[in-house]
UniProtKB/TrEMBL annotation:
InterPro entries: Ald_Oxase/Xan_DH_a/b, Ald_Oxase/Xan_DH_a/b_sf, Ald_Oxase/xanthine_DH-like, AldOxase/xan_DH_MoCoBD1, AldOxase/xan_DH_MoCoBD2, AldOxase/xan_DH_Mopterin-bd_sf. Residues 1-17 have a biased composition (Low complexity). Residues 1-45 are annotated as: Disordered. This is Xanthine dehydrogenase family protein molybdopterin-binding subunit. Residues 47-153 form the Aldehyde oxidase/xanthine dehydrogenase a/b hammerhead domain. It comes from the Bacteria. It comes from Streptomyces bikiniensis. Pfam families: Ald_Xan_dh_C, MoCoBD_1, MoCoBD_2.
Length: 778
């Protein structure tokens, strides 16, 4: 293949798309931190011209298909690819025997095979991949591969995984965390217990998971995918290809958004193997079924709780057992378990806590990183316990929570002091005091507001309204000693600035934030963000708000270094320090008005650039007693949910979600509101509809007819009643992540409101109709 074979590949420079010029007299586009600067790619996405990964094309393109196991657990007796190889148009077939490098991969633990070779451990596991000159030919060839299985009994109950035969050479136990905090003999006057189950939520990326692999003349390969962690994915792929990392280049292209790991390496690695084998570009666009079967989901979780409180409702001790179903492979289960155990008591002061946490392997679909992992599951449980405690004491649920809320200076059950702002009481007061929405009218015109939608089967007389509260918390950045670091370069030339940083904008608005930082620091309106690839220094994964903090911090430092380069000659000329100069609206002025010039004049045709890193303060792993300073920072949220429940049919309509959130600092008001609204809606899906169902390990209905995402009609009225701007002094700009904590908190709030309406305990998410039918005498 010629050296210019990749020139036809679009690289989706989406951050450089200019908006249309406004009409004469229109206010100038806002810029700088604190303004609602629109995302540069928003118009292209709205008009359908944005180049997604599934739009990629290259000359001489071949198409890929993957053969997947129909069984959740089986021994592979034989694999016969001869029929597939003999089909006209088939260019290559690869199996486990054709992997030249590492046979297994994993972002956290390398325990997942590229292709199953001896055992199949979950439904949909990859066994082989085919490259052909037409997508239909590739799919037919994959189906023609003859695999003989010895079907084995699947282990699908995580509680039985402890005593079951090992499903993996590493065993069935991924991690055990025993947390010990305080006096085990402590007891309260009032005790409540509960058993809770959280279902398997899928990240459900709307855009198709797709990619393109293009071989290089030097024996390497280029991967074009919507990766959220390009350098890690590059390194994993290179190890499996038997190549050095510098021989593999990953170009991030066409990211439509992500609420978890966007593109699983299980899609990328077969692509690269086929491209290297054929010497041709190879494209794969996963079907919706393949996405459901292949990528990681939220951990299904079983939780047992016992809360002790005194007669006034103040918490004395929390005891909990938390069991995460990691599915067939470890992935991020260890990190998810750490969050679940550390936040098992919620944002409350608990003098004594004893928590046992386990993550285990089963033959269920793999679990992994989904927004708010670990924290969301325990939030649903501890908030249900707070409702039980309030009911037993005869105390208002909001008041009971207020008596126990955490504040700055309190201790987590891990022994870590909460040093960041923790305005939990202020958040709870805001949602509690916000006016309730009006009751629906009992008229034909208002029937569409009833649970069940337009022309639903319910009767207005069977509808009851419920109000519920929930408080949630998440950690920021990685945890337990993760080395969080990001690098960014800012270059200024010809009146425009360019930001080079490999932080992937998955919908978090990082590209917009980077533009705002440079505008604010350098007074330059025209700021471009370069496309992301692995030729740039690493910036880490797009998770836990880390790009706002770490990558944004790196951009800020680089921009300030360029600012110093720009101002030093002027300061020296006028005999003053650079601190006495300011840049506003493209003009440089001194404190005394002696100096006044434009940034363009000061540049005088020069090119300035600087590269900087940002690395937060270190953390440490939890020890054998679950103790340690494991988290860089925390964010908090309070939500009041109002629901209408048809107590005869069990149908639930979320009327309103009132949200108060600890945001540190508002960097982009419009983007922040959108992130909160999206997080709440995702949480409502987890509460009411989203559950990837399995039967003995087999995924049932892996499509959007069987997996119900909330639609625009299901989305509640989200009222952002308060945003607390108490800056975290150790965070760049003082900002906190915005989208994860409403995802964590909203399912618990919806469940609390359904409990209030029906009198039922509601101990399972998503809430099934039979659980929303009113209890007798309720």
């Amino acid at each position: 293949m010629s050296s210019d074979a990749t020139t036809a590949v679009p690289t989706a420079t989406v951050t450089d798309v200019p908006g249309p010029p406004g009409p004469l007299g229109q206010e100038p586009t806002p810029h700088g931190l604190g303004t609602s600067l629109p995302q540069a790619d928003s118009r292209a996405k709205a008009e359908g011209t944005f180049p997604y990964a599934s739009d990629l094309w290259a000359e001489g393109l071949l198409w890929a298909a993957i053969l997947r196991s129909p069984h959740p657990h089986a021994r592979i007796v034989s694999v016969d690819t001869s029929a597939a190889v003999a089909m006209p148009g088939v260019r290559a077939v690869v199996t486990a025997a054709d992997v030249p490098g590492a046979a297994t991969y994993g972002r956290r633990v390398a325990d997942r095979p590229v292709f199953a070779s001896d055992l199949v451990r979950h439904h949909g596991e990859a066994l082989a991949a085919v490259a052909a000159d037409h997508p239909d030919t590739a799919r037919l060839a994959a189906a023609a591969i003859a695999v003989e299985y010895e079907v084995l009994e699947p282990v699908t109950d995580p509680e039985k995984a402890f005593a079951a035969e090992p499903l993996h050479p590493d065993g069935n136990l991924i991690r055990h965390i025993p947390l010990r905090f305080g006096d085990p003999e402590a007891a309260g006057e009032v005790v409540v217990e509960g058993l809770y189950r959280i279902g398997r939520q899928d990240p459900a990326p709307i855009g198709a998971e797709a990619g393109l692999a293009v071989p290089r003349p030097d024996g390497g390969v280029e991967l074009y995918t919507a990766s959220t962690d390009p350098h890690t994915d590059r390194d994993l792929a290179a190890a499996c290809f038997g190549l050095l990392p510098e021989q593999v280049k990953l170009v991030v292209t066409g990211v439509p958004g992500a609420t978890g790991d966007r593109e699983d390496p299980g899609f990328q690695i077969p692509l690269g193997l086929l491209a290297l084998r054929t010497g041709c570009p190879v494209k794969l666009t996963a079907t919706r079924e393949e996405s459901f079967l292949g990528h990681a989901h939220r951990h299904p979780t079983l939780l047992r709780y016992r809360h002790h409180a005194d007669a006034e409702g103040r918490l004395v001790k929390v005891e909990a057992q938390i069991l995460l179903d990691g599915g067939a492979y470890a992935d991020s289960s260890s990190e998810s378990l750490a969050a679940a155990v550390a936040f098992a008591c919620g944002p409350y002061v608990v003098p004594h806590a004893f928590v046992e946490g386990w993550a285990v392997r089963t033959n269920n679909p793999p679990s992994g990183h989904v927004r708010g992992e670990g924290a969301m599951q325990v939030c649903a449980a501890y908030e249900a316990q707070m409702d039980k405690l309030a009911a037993k004491l005869g105390v208002d649920p909001a008041e009971l929570r207020m008596r126990n809320v955490m504040a700055t200076g309190d201790l987590l059950p891990t022994g870590q002091t909460v040093t960041c702002p923790a305005p939990v009481a202020e958040l709870l007061s805001a949602v509690r005091d916000f006016p309730l929405p009006p009751l629906p009218k009992d008229t034909p015109e208002g029937e569409w507001l009833l649970p069940g939608g337009p022309e639903g089967a319910g009767e207005p007389g069977a509808v009851r309204r419920g109000v519920g509260y929930a408080l949630g918390m998440v950690h920021m950045l990685g945890a337990e000693g993760t080395d969080e670091v990001s690098t960014a370069t800012v270059r200024v030339a010809d009146g425009a600035a360019t930001v080079i940083c490999s932080a992937v904008d998955t919908g978090s608005g990082f590209a917009t934030l980077a533009r705002q930082i440079v505008q604010e620091t350098l007074g330059i309106d025209e700021v471009h963000v370069a496309p992301v690839d692995t030729d740039q220094p690493p910036a880490g994964p797009a998770a836990h708000g880390r790009h706002t903090w770490v990558s944004g911090g790196a951009v800020e430092r680089a921009a300030k270094m360029v600012r110093t380069q720009l101002l030093q000659p002027l300061a020296h000329k006028f005999g003053m320090s650079t601190e006495l100069l300011q840049i506003t609206d493209g003009k440089i002025t001194s404190y005394d008005g002696v100096l006044s010039t434009t940034v363009t004049e000061a540049m005088d045709g020069k090119e300035l650039w600087a590269t900087a890193q940002c690395r937060p303060h270190p953390t440490e792993p939890l020890d054998d007693a679950g103790q340690g300073d494991a988290f860089v920072g925390l964010a908090f949220c309070a939500i009041r949910a109002v629901v209408d429940v048809d107590v005869e049919l069990g149908a639930v309509r979320v009327v309103e979600m009132a949200v108060a959130q600890d945001v540190g600092r508002i960097l982009n008001p419009a983007q922040l509101a959108t992130r909160i609204e999206a997080g709440v809606t995702q949480g409502v899906g987890a509460a009411l509809t989203e559950n990837l169902r399995t039967a003995r390990g087999l995924v049932r209905h892996p499509d959007f007819t069987g997996y119900a995402l909330p639609t625009s009609l299901d989305a509640p009225d989200v009222r952002i009643v308060k945003l607390v701007e108490e800056r975290d002094v150790v965070a760049p700009f003082g900002a906190k992540p915005a989208s994860a904590v409403p995802v964590v908190t909203s399912p618990a709030a919806v469940a609390a409101a359904v409990r209030a309406a029906t009198g039922r305990p509601v101990n399972r998410l998503p809430i099934r109709p039979q659980a929303a039918v009113a209890a007798p005498n309720a």
